[in-house]
Amino acid sequence: MSIPFRLAGLVALTLLLSACQQPDNSVEEIRPVRVTTAGTLGNTPSDSFAGQIRARTETDLAFRIGGKMVAKLVNSGEHVKKGQVLARLDPSDTSLDISAKQAQLAAAESDLAQQQLNLQRYQQLLAKQFISQAQVDSQQNGVNAARAKRDEARAQLAASRNQGSYTQLLADADGIVSQMLAEPGQVVAAGQPVARLAHDGEREAAIQVPENALQQVRQQKQFVVTLWAGKQQFEGSLRELAGDADPATRTYAARISLPHASALALGQTVTVTLSGNGASQSQSLRLPLTALLDEQGKHYVWVVDDKTLRVSRRAVSVQSIDSQSVTLQGGVRPGEKVVSAGVHLLHDQQRVTLLQGAL
After folding, report:
1. Alpha-helical segments (H) within 128-260
2. Measuring CA to CA, which of 162, 240, 314, 351 is 20 to 30 A from 297?
3. Tens digit of each residue's pLDDT (9 = 90 or more) over 96-143
4. How far apart are CA 268 and CA 214, in angstroms?
5. Packing angle, helices 133-165 and 92-127, rounded to 10
6. DSSP symbol at 47
7. Mean pLDDT, the chain, as a whole number?
């Protein structure tokens, strides 16, 4: 073997060894990911709300004066008529006050009668010129003062009689006593609620709306109210939506008017559903919050191709977000696989492998 041939073989061997020692940068990185399958939403918390039937008008009734309650004439759940007596206070103090005011009125009337007789005598003496006109005018002023005192005593007696009538708590409308808040023997203050009266007539569904559904409920024109017992359905409309959240639940109280459901019993459990949302529900998808990628104020998700196992970034429209999930309005089709973890570590058309239990 010649020397040039040996040198050529050594060079080739050296090049081969150096090539084997260099890392192969052409190997594609395959990243393991967890995925979730996008599916349509049925009745989500943004689409339906639990509630109960309430009266359109509910009044907390109270005594207009304070005192000791001596009688409760109705119980919770009873139907009452307007003007019916619901409870009574001890009338002893008001009776004594009425008696005192009657005595004051009698004294004022007696004084007025005496002043009028004196005026007649003064006028007779003036005719005989035994007294001056100034004395008659003074007596006339006494009559006027006595008449004013009598009128004052009459007004005070009328006020005392009104106070006496306030010892009876009357129903201000036909309705159902939904709750009695005091019992005989209890001392109540003026204005302290004693009974709650639900007026007859129109019924409403009372619900609590979370913050992320406020706009949807406010724009909704019709609601479907379904009774839990009997599954009857009624159509309703939004009558009232609170402007401030409840400090305990952080939800907003709403009332759905039911003009054709006056026969419903108070307190029945209902489900209030937003009607006319079939198209939006078919397109609304819920995904874990970790599947959402935010970049420069826009929202994206990574969709996995079933055949190539490569990911592609897709822009999505977010409908609502809570502490654990995001509801999308377009951008992803039902049944597509979406990366649910590690979205910040991927790039477009990157190949991935699905972790077990990810689907």
Report:
1. 133-165, 214-219
2. 351
3. 999 999 999 999 999 999 999 999 999 999 999 999 999 999 999 999
4. 24
5. 160
6. T
7. 85
